[in-house]
Specification:
About 35% of the residues lie in helices and about 10% in strands. The chain contains five helices and four strands. It has one domain: Rossmann fold. A four-stranded parallel β-sheet has the order 2-1-3-4. Helix 1 links the parallel strand 1 and strand 2. It is an alpha/beta fold and about 160 residues long. Helix 1 packs across helix 4 and helix 2 packs across helix 4.
Length: about 160
Amino acid sequence: MKILYICTHNRCRSILSEAITNHVSQGAIIAKSAGSQPSGQVHPLSIHYLQEAGIPVAGLQSQSWDEFEDFAPDVVVTVCDSAAGEACPVWFGNTVKVHWGLSDPSKIEGSEEQKADGFRACIAEITERVNKLMPLANQAMTAQQLREALAALGAK
């Protein structure tokens, strides 16, 4: 199964999702991330808290969804509300699309501990969702069956 995580700026939630999915799935799922308006750099706290969780960060970069026309994902997951409302590129075609609506830990204003708690909570939520996806990774399903299976897991 191939998943493309989309967030407007591709610097935090989609990056976290890509790294966690590739780490947890151990190759059963191939994850990439992109943005409609990429910032060009990964948020430094995303890198910090992924490393703290023991998740590899090599190769993570903020990039445009235009760079993934040939990736042909089975599933496109939007992780921010603004990306969910954007018009997706035509090349997404009939790809199954779901929305996870993750809170943005990079927007937390407060103490370092509050920021840390936000990143750790987001990482835990993504990990939980990826663990629920794992049983679907090697099943041969039509787009409609995959859509229904994702809906049954609680993905929006």
